[in-house]
Amino acid sequence: MTQSPVNHLKRGGGCQFDSPSGLQSAKHAWRGGRTADLQQETGLALADFDVLAQLAEAHGELRMTELADRALISRSGMSRRVARLVDEGLLRRARAGTDGRGVVVALTEAGIARLGETAPVHARGISKLFVAQLDDQELALLERALNKVIVDCSFG
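RESULT FIELD:
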């Protein structure tokens, strides 16, 4: 009987990782729990929170393409999301000054305020669903491991 490649991965040196499905399960539990909780408590979807947070980390504005890359979403998907957030008054969009084809997306005062209201709820959710499950040593190990795993998730 052969083992499914989904449940058994080997590295070049012969070491094996028998639980990639565990990573999938953790990802789905995390996204599902955070998405539902954040939206229920604040009215803001997790993906929308991520857009606002990415802009805040970039001092309030980014080119649309860079925002899409940072948020790990396609450019067309980001355009639709930004259009909705502009309609809600949380973002504004303008042509890039040096390049008439480029678009710059920026937080509005309302977007900054919404992020400020939502961030503590998001942080509590992370703590409850993730951080509280691990001790200090496990958290440090996980941080080191995740810092080694950088995947190019840019979209064309």
